[in-house]
Amino acid sequence: MRKCLGIGLLMFFCSCLQLLGQEVTVNDSGDVEENGAVGLIEDVIDLVSMEKGRHSLIFYPMAGYSPRQGFHIGVMPVWRIKPAAEIECEYYRPTTIAPSVKFSTTGMYEFELDALGFTKNRWMFISKFQYLYLPDEFYGIGNQVKNPPYSEFEINRFKFKSEILKGLNAKWFVGVSIDINNDDLTNIEGDLLTPDVMGYYGGWANGVGPGFAFDSRNDQLYPSRGWFVLFASSYYSKAFGSDYEFLTTTLDVRKYISLKGNESILAFQTYLSGAEGDVPFYKLSFLGGSRLLRGISHPYRYMDKHVWYAQGEWRKHIWWRLGGVLFAGTGKVSPQFMDAPLKDLHMVMGGGLRFKVLPDEGLNFRIDFGRSNHGDTGVYFTIREAF
Asked: Please, are residues 185 and 153 in contact by the beta-carbon 8 Å criterion?
């Protein structure tokens, strides 16, 4: 399977090189005219995209591979709503709504709705809805490198998470964090996942709490300068219909630095999250996935009540709508907050390609490949930057 993955990636990169080798024409103003392969791709994009007034809709294919999901395919329409031109408000920014449907060779299927919304009254919505069926594995709790055999199980998951924030002034936002989850676990096999593990019986995990944000970025989708800081805390209680009672706290800090205009950008992120109480294993803090530490593809491989990680990325415009990134990161999970924080670290490195969905906006379709110091790998095909 890894050999097939390598062949697929090689074919993709060869296609990109062939694209770059096509003859192009540069007009007097320095713009690339749409001929050859460029014109063909633009024609294809026109067939799968629509634009009317402030609204644009474009359909993108999804494909990829991970040890958790196997080979998967799907489709992702991206709906963008621009602010009304007559309204002058610094924080009335484009709204992006991206539903997706995905199927995999392991039998997984997933429906997801990802939304980033802004209003003229300084409201900000960061929301995600998910329904997922997945044959999965449980590796045990802890930061140590795991060895088989693992427990296998099947999960049906309903999830809704949202931060609803109101702008107090130019840069500060305050609001509420809402997290609603229902997990149904079936066909559990193996000796690791037993009734002694919190969350074995599934159920509801619903939490509500305050959220605060500081945002000085010049763009939400592809910032080249500024800061973004998000603090959120949620209390999961039977009063909210939860089967478990616990408290989570998260701090997400990001910094963006522009080099040579916007042609080259450095991006940094530090993330801390912790939980106290009766936490089901599927709500523990974790490493990995398409946004956290790419290169650790399975979020259940390293999980515990507390996590910290830091990652950096160099983003570079290459040509036309194409860009590239190099990234690296490190972190760990632990049962106590900052328990031996620099011991037994997990480290990842990797790179990727970017394709700009709309020529005048920073929404990218991204392909990332990462690898960790413990041999984990991840390949991701999705939209938006990891952070």
From this structure: yes
* pLDDT, tens digit, 9 for 90 and up, residues 237-288: 999 999 999 999 999 999 999 987 778 999 999 999 999 999 999 999 998 8
For residue 355, what are the β-bridge partners? 322, 365
Q: What is the pLDDT of residue 205?
A: 97
* pLDDT at 12 > cutoff 70: no
Tokens for 204, please give them: 């509801």
Q: How far lies 287's CA from each of 147, 207, 273, 371, 377, in Å? A: 17, 21, 11, 13, 13
Q: Which of 304, 300, 288, 303 is nearest to 336 (CA)?
A: 304
User: Which amino acid does the sequence have at 209?
Assistant: G
CA distance 306 to 291: 18
Q: Which DSSP state fits 27?
A: -
What is the bridge-based pairing of β-strands 32-33 and 151-167?
unpaired
H or E element: which one contains 328?
A: strand 322-334
The DSSP code sequence of 199-231 is TTT-EEEEEEEEEEEEE--S-SSS-SSEEEEEE
106 contacts: CB under 8 Å, gap ≥ 6: 69, 70, 134, 135
Q: Report residue 60 as tokens.
A: 């993108």
DSSP string, 283-303: GSEE--SSSSSTT---TTSSE
CB 373 within 8 A of CB 59: no
Q: Within 10 A of 231 (CB to CB), how many other CB atoms are there?
A: 16
